[in-house]
Amino acid sequence: MIKRLSLFFKMGLFFSLLFFAVRYSGMVSFDVDGDAVSVHSVVIILILGGCFYFYRLIKTAILKVFPPRSNYQKGLDNLQLAFSAMLLRDKFMIEKFLKKSEKYLGDMPIILWLKGQQSLIDGDEHRAKATFYSLCEREKDTVLGAYSLCQLATKAKADDDALAAINSILKISPHNQDLTLQAVAIAVKNKNFIEAKKHLGALKKSDKSRLIEAIIYSEEGIQNQNPDLTKRAFKLAPELSDNAIVYAEHLINKSEYRSARDVLRKSFVAAPNREVFNKYISVGKDLSHLDQIKLASNLISDVPWSWIGYYELAKLFLQEGMIQSAFQNLLVAYEKEPFDFIGNELTKVAENLEDPKPAQAIEILSQPLKLKRVNFIWKCAHCGSEEPHWESVCKFCNRIAEYERIQKEVPLLIN
Q: What whole-number distance in Å separates Cα of residue 407 and Cα of residue 318?
């Protein structure tokens, strides 16, 4: 509508000028090479009008073929150049293109975020943090500021700031599993179990939800010495051996030996562990080595594929002087896992067997054993840090339930 009015006004102005030229003007003379040429002023106006109209046609055609860039596009182009300069860590170019972007786009959140990143490149974390805080106050549907604050807080191991930033992000993106896991890990690490439980609903679809819930109740139970919580954690995840041992200790203190053994038995079946095995065979009153041997044999029948039961049972046989039985169990353990410490025990026992020695003992003594030297460690699947004992939360990367038991093996041939 406005364009039509503008065109109507221009046409009216042109014809008005033409009318006054016809009405009141006369001839206009020009000197061309000494000759006087007279042209009516109306003709001059028509020629000028024609030139202007022709200019507009040419301009329109050129713009259709080569359309001009809008200020918005210019701003985006400079923003892209600013990103490229940031990747190259070129401080001068970053500042130059950011200023141009701001000129065309205004003070957009993405530009403010880039300014914060520029401060980080300059080594000014305080200024960067202030920029990101300012950005957080302005953002409604984006999380640039909160995410950057989270990164800074995680790097500085400032758990409270990191948790606050993560919670700000989760308000906008509540289904972000990775950040939810980080929030739970930080809360558990700082014994803030109420905060940790707030996120359990968001983890229902996670394949680790059962284990993480068990870790929360286990840590809370140990912290508050609450056996009901350790019991709940055990039912959720019997493979948590530390929790199973704590819960079994509570039952032992109440003289509920059978229940304690049931707990340890389920834990060992879920995840064979030497500590759980030894705890299991020690549960009871006035147990002799023979009683422990019977308990160990029962446990081995549940987990016949693990070397642990046979190795520990062999040690019990040795304490009773039952060399032949010890040898047979060590042999089975060694066949399942040829570790160096099992091989050394096997050689010592084979030497102490009474003559005539069995063929298996003679073969072991006459040939070098092919052994694997091994260290049992817990390794974080996320950052690779190693610990001698299981940890619920990695102290290096703040990840929960990431530690896995591995066997670091070095092939060793004894001549």
A: 26
Cα–Cα distances (Å) from 277 to 105, 271, 272, in that order, read: 68, 10, 8
CA atoms within 13 A on the CB side of 323: 12
Q: Which residue has the tokens 């819960």?
A: 247
Task: Give CA 310 to chain center in angstroms.
Answer: 40
Per-residue pLDDT tens digits for 360-404: 888 888 888 877 888 888 899 888 888 888 889 988 888 898 888
AA letter at 390 = W
* Phi-psi sector, 398: left (phi>0), alpha (psi -120 to 50), beta: left
Q: Mind listing the pLDDT tens digit for each residue in 51-74?
A: 776 777 776 666 566 555 567 788
User: Residue 324 pairs with which residues in a beta bridge?
Assistant: none
**DSSP structure class, residue 77:** H
pTM summary value: 0.71
Contact 397, 380 (CB under 8 A): yes
Dihedral angle of Cα 363, 368, 370, 375, to the nearest 10 degrees: 120
Tens-place pLDDT, residues 109-148: 888 888 888 888 888 888 888 888 888 888 878 888 888 8
| Greatest C-alpha distance within the chain | 145
Give the phi and the psi of residue 372 in degrees, each rounded to 5.
-120, 115
Instruction: Annotate 324-342 with b (16+ C-beta within 10 A) or e (fewer).
Output: ebbbbbbbbbbebbbbbeb
Name the residue among 288, 335, 337 with its Cα closest to residue 316.
Answer: 288
Bond prior to 356 in cis (omega within 30° of 0): yes
Q: Are the beta carbons of 225 and 251 closer than 8 angstroms?
A: no
